[in-house]
Amino acid sequence: MTNAAETSTRAAQASAEVRAIHRRMLRRQRLGRAMTYLLGILLSLWVLIPIVFITSMALTTPAAVRSYPKSVFPFLPFSTATMEFFLNSRGVLPGITNSIIVAVITLVLSTLIAAPAGYAISRFIFRGRDVFRLSILAVRAFPVVVLSIPLAVVFLRLNIYDNLFSLAMMHTALALPTTILVLSSVFASIPYELEEAAQVFGCSPAQAFRHIVLPLVLPGIAAAAIFTFVLSWNEVFAASILAPLHNRTLPVQVLITLDESSEPYQFAGGFFMLIPALIFIFFIRRYLFNMWGQITK
Amino acid sequence: MSAPSSPKRRRKRNWAPYLLILPSIVYLALFFAYPMVNGLILSVREAGALLTLHGEAQQLSLPTGQLPRGAQVSILDQQGNLISQDELDQANLVTEIWFQTRGQDSTGETLEGWAPGTRIRVRETNESGAPVSGTVRPRIGSDDPLTFIYAEPNDNSEIVGSLEVQTPVEILDQVTLEVWFLVRAEVEEQTEEGWVQSRYLQVFGDGTQGRVSRGDTGQFTTRYFQQMVNDRFFVPALRTTLLLMVIIIPIQFVLAITMALVIQANPKGSGLFLYLFTIGLGVSDLAVGIVWYSIFTQLGYLNSILQGLGLIDSPITYLSATKQYWILIAIILAEVWRATSIVMVIVVAGMQAISREVLEAAEIFGAGFWQRVRYVILPLLRPSLQVALILRTILAFQVFAVVVVLGGGDIVTVLANETYRQYYDLRNVNVAAAYSVFILLLSMFTAVFYLRAVRTQEEVGG
Q1: What is the pLDDT of residues A226-247, one digit of tens each?
Q2: What ipTM, to 2 d.p.?
Q3: Do residue B24 and residue A180 have CB atoms under 8 angstroms apart?
Q4: Judgement on whether residues B248 and B275 belong to the same structural domain of the protein
Q5: What's the rounded Cα separation, in Å, for the pair B229 and A51?
Q6: Are A139 and A266 in the same domain?
Q7: d(CA A187, CA B17)
Q8: Strand, coil or helix: A232
Q9: Nearest by Cα to B44 from B443, B435, B452, B462
């Protein structure tokens, strides 16, 4: 009886101790969680606030853009006048068209060239594979500044200077390393056994690829293509060196007319160039990690 | 990575992967290797090269001196020399035609040899337009009735005979010769004399004066690099580039690791955090420049907020030539804002590779949060951090549009901007190429430096 009572009090003590530890851990965890949220929210604000600023500048009247001090509340008065002013400025619509043309050519070209290479890296072990991967990485880090000047000279000599297609070829070269790495990780995420099984059931390797692999990798390929599009849309140095005259892309147009343009024009332009980033990064954010996870392997 | 599981693939040499990577190899060689070599050549090869003078009117004769482009020369003599068919489209080319003729001289003997085209009037041509016969022309302004016939299409060669005016001749062949000029010029109080091809000269007046219009040799020169180093923007550009790099990269790494830890803690809404933190990856440096310009411009948000809080009475001008440090601060904030995301993505990818067991073990053994970060996470992240560091450093040499937008292009300038200025504003391709080669060397140097530094550290640490 006493024994039992002793045991029960000891158990009660022990459980109280455990509960205390548990409580302390919970508190600690809650504190950690709160800290995480605090940091997350602070960092999010750091990212968000400038975006809110530029957005509210772009979506208001030019008069409000020029006013001072600016209203703390964004989007007041809300108006599309500034954006319309920007879009109707000389050279802007052609610039947008050119940007889209270059970006589309770039994404088609780079997907066509990169997909086989990505497939090869992920599916075959061959001599030179590591060298190939390493050199792609080296090329990825290569300064675009270094390439543009000599390419401009070559393009002038070949009479394809100031030309959208040659600019797209340059952008393809810039996008290719990233695209190859993303696509190889996308292919690698599809087990080879699926392909093999299809072949066992009588598919040719090409058919197995067409019917089994392709549908599975399409989202990944789309993500890589979107990333390529954004890269080309954003690229300004090579574009301003290679096509600065009659085929300006949007960033080049904005950059070259920067000195003589007004603030509403500049802010609307900045916002407009930001839009693809805001939309597309949302869709491809998962794949960004695929791509960079590769590198440190 | 899924390795091929079929043993058959391994046994015999499979060409499929090589065929699959071939297009990208060709493409990258074309657009990376070739321009790189080309850029190097542009930056060290003399474009407005010197013109080599020759001892005789022949390419293979000994050089007697050199003339720079633009030198004024007096022309003393001229002589034709053979030229290959595909060089005939050169600019400034002065040519002469010689005919191989056969005719009878005054003694009735048949004479065969070469006569200059100016002394033969072509009378008949065949269906393809080539001359077949003609007559000897009188020499204008001279009373010498005879025309010399030479053994070779060259008036220095042996004279085999002479023909009288109006002698009918058969034309057997014709050649086009490029004229060489014997020129004399004063260069730096020295007289240079020698033969040059007509293509390198602009001849004017009565044919006794000329000017060297281009060179013939692209020899090695450090002129463009000297021009780059002596440019008044070079030192500020280099200093600013390095300064920005040294300040921005540590801030980015601290921020990126913090972001990665937040995401790794996987709170509710981490998807949203992830999205916000990666936005910078898709933002161009031009757009980010404009975004931060809207904050730092005189009537911008920073002044509005400060005035709203009553901290200032009238707007401050931040981005002006007298306040370079404000421009630098704006550039730093903009670059940190935009380019932290790429470091973050690499770090998160690296963190995902750290196994949960390791972290839990550390926690069980009583490691606090900071200890875990310091002794477990950071060491395991080292490869990722190294990649991120190399990448960020190389990208830091390419900062361009942000600086143009916030720094106006010349108040605060960076190397990439100078490359652009040399190319676009000053039209000086060679100096621009020198800049780009310089940036390439810096990038390669830092990459090698980082790799070495990390390796020696590992060796020292055992």
Answers
A1: 888 998 999 999 999 898 888 8
A2: 0.86
A3: yes
A4: yes
A5: 39
A6: yes
A7: 14
A8: helix
A9: B435
